[in-house]
Design brief:
- The complex is a heterodimer of chains A (255) and B (167).
- Chain A has 255 residues and is an all-alpha fold.
- Chain A is 69% helix and 0% strand.
- Chain A has 12 helices and no strands.
- In chain A, helix 1 packs antiparallel against helix 2 and helix 5 runs antiparallel to helix 10.
- The radius of gyration of chain A is 18 Å and the shape is globular.
- Chain B is α/β, with parallel strands linked by helices and 167 residues long.
- In chain B, 22% of the residues lie in helices and 22% in strands.
- Chain B contains 4 helices and 7 strands.
- Chain B is elongated and about 60 Å long.
- The chains are: A mainly alpha (255), B alpha/beta (167).
- The interface between A and B is medium-sized, with 31 and 27 residues.
Chain lengths: 255, 167
């Protein structure tokens, strides 16, 4: 792959990383003022804030790589759904608290492993963002793991809801762990994370958490995918309609 | 021909920055917090290297503004702020004086070596209550009023308190 092609590939890769953080950060922020207890409300707002901060770093780098004068704000607010590259998992609705938590657990486990690998990226810009974000994500994962175990191994009602969420969201985990051509190219170049190495680690860790949480791992089956290529569920459009409203209605509005 | 503006030495500039309070926790300075990484002259322009604490911390913009205002008040006209991500900020960089000031203010300073990046399995250390000194405390939540703090409660004096979490 030539230098220019590599820049283009890395632009797409940064969009994936940034869009995951942006869309999940937006989803999680929807809980602000609505969470079941005050401590969880604060924790969710903090996680959302970290994710939005990480979004800025990835999308700013994407804009620099693209060289067309688009910064993080332009990329966040002025793209349509099919130009977003986030995983389908992160755009799924909050549902009940169990669905929000299981979505976060699946993502945090993956995010932690990917950022750990990206700290060794041959691209120094990628490595330094990963180094920064990784510290924050460790705290996210500790929370989602501990809370999943408490609610899974909790009351009959909390366990039932957690198992239902695991069963419902499992179908979105394949996309996170299965490399496509872009993932493979960047992993081969030593710039991106190698999902073939990450997948078994994710499997092993999720199994341990599910066991501690007295939850059952769903049977292997068909997986939904498409987010990384811009084919999204109908959910993303609703998120963007709200998130992008101001910039669409008042183009160029600034603080 | 105009005379070159006097260039204060970096030590003097560090002492000025040591008086700029953190906007969220005003009892400690930006230097105590360890986020000022370097102060150098590039010709007649001053370059201050700043590293963010948390990537989404809303105080970052205010911090940059306060650095600029403080230095301009001391007569520095040409300056640039450089953001540095790596090495990533760590609470290990909070000065000893900063830790004492946090404690006196009612925020338990970070217990280094306990839970932080890459140490997922590490157990949280006992955190002493900054009010009564008791070690009989419990964590309410890993997250708190700002990204850098966790919420704790003292089982002896029964007061809730903030803990500056290791990072």
């Amino acid at each position: 792959m030539g230098g220019e092609q590599m820049e283009r590939a890395l632009f797409d890769y940064c969009l994936r990383l940034g869009d995951n953080c942006l869309v999940l950060g937006h989803r999680v922020s929807e809980w602000c003022g609505h969470a079941p207890v005050l401590e969880e409300d604060i924790a969710l707002a903090n996680v959302a804030l970290d994710l939005i901060g990480q979004t800025r770093m990835w999308l700013d780098l994407a804009g620099t790589l693209e060289g067309q004068g688009r910064d993080a704000d332009k990329l966040a607010y002025l793209r349509d759904a099919n130009a977003f590259r986030n995983l389908l998992l992160v755009e799924q609705p909050n549902g009940d608290f169990a669905q929000t938590l299981v979505r976060q657990l699946f993502f945090d486990l993956w995010h932690d492993l990917v950022l750990e690998a990206l700290q060794r990226s041959k691209d120094a810009r990628v490595a330094e963002i990963a180094e920064k974000a990784s510290k924050e994500v460790t705290y996210h994962l500790v929370r989602s793991r501990d809370l999943s175990i408490r609610l899974g191994d909790g009351s009959e009602e909390s366990r039932r809801r957690m198992q239902a969420a695991v069963d419902e969201l499992w179908i979105f985990t394949g996309e996170m762990l299965t490399p496509d051509a872009l993932d493979k190219d960047l992993a081969a170049a030593g710039i991106g994370a190698d999902l073939e190495k990450i997948a078994p680690l994710w499997d092993e860790r999720i199994d341990r958490i599910l066991e501690d949480a007295t939850l059952t791992r769903p049977e292997a089956g068909w997986m939904r995918e498409g987010g990384k290529a811009g084919r999204h569920s109908e959910q993303l459009g609703f998120i963007l309609a709200e998130m992008q409203f101001l910039q669409r209605a008042y183009p160029g509005a600034a603080w | 021909m105009t005379a070159a503006a006097p260039r204060p030495d970096p030590g003097t500039i560090w002492s000025w920055l040591a008086e700029v309070p953190d906007p969220e926790i005003p009892v400690i300075s930006l230097v105590d917090l360890g986020i000022i990484r370097d102060v150098t002259w590039q010709g007649d322009s001053l370059e201050v290297t700043v590293t963010p604490t948390y990537s989404g911390c809303p105080a970052t913009a205010v911090i940059n503004l306060e650095i600029e205002q403080a230095l301009r008040a001391h007569g520095i006209e040409k300056l640039t702020l450089k953001r540095q991500l790596s090495p990533a900020w760590t609470t290990r960089w909070i000065s000893r004086a900063g830790r004492e000031k946090l404690k006196a203010y009612g925020i338990a300073p970070p217990e280094e070596g306990s839970l932080c990046a890459g140490q997922l399995a590490a157990e949280a250390h006992a955190v002493d209550c900054p009010r009564c000194g008791s070690s009989e405390t419990e964590r309410i939540s890993q997250f708190g009023s700002t990204p850098c703090k966790a919420s704790y409660r003292c089982r002896d004096c029964l007061e809730p308190f903030d803990y500056f979490k290791p990072f």
